[in-house]
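Hi V.,

You were right to ask for the full record rather than a summary. Here it is.
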Amino acid sequence: MFFGESTIMLSYPVNLELDTNNTYLVTFPDLPEAISVGDDEDEALLNALDALETVIEAFFDKKREVPMPSKPNKGQHMVTLPALVVTKVLLQNEMLRQGVRKSELARRLNVHMPQVDRLLDPRHSSKLEAIEAAFVSLGKRLKISVA
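Predicted structure:
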């Protein structure tokens, strides 16, 4: 997935530790608010994606920019956001950088506020065309690539 001319894939490094309860604890160095557990590594990493998406929702609600992932250490586990969520994170961050409120985006897209609310809901299955139109209204272009 491309945004501007740089490649964006939001894969966040995680710390995975066996805790005193014989469960695996997952923490995110880039997003300390996101914490998850699981009975084994696979379950912990699966739950970590849910924790990551929940924290992203909180960032959206608080109108805070979602930080980009740092470079992982060698052998460090990663949790990758789904492509649709990535586009929404990039859209929200761009709106914040430009100072464009949801009401202004609705005006630019000629849609009602509930449509913009869904567009900026990481768990809502928005249409890619709507996200693409939102980027265009911000003077940006969304490019998609398969690697």
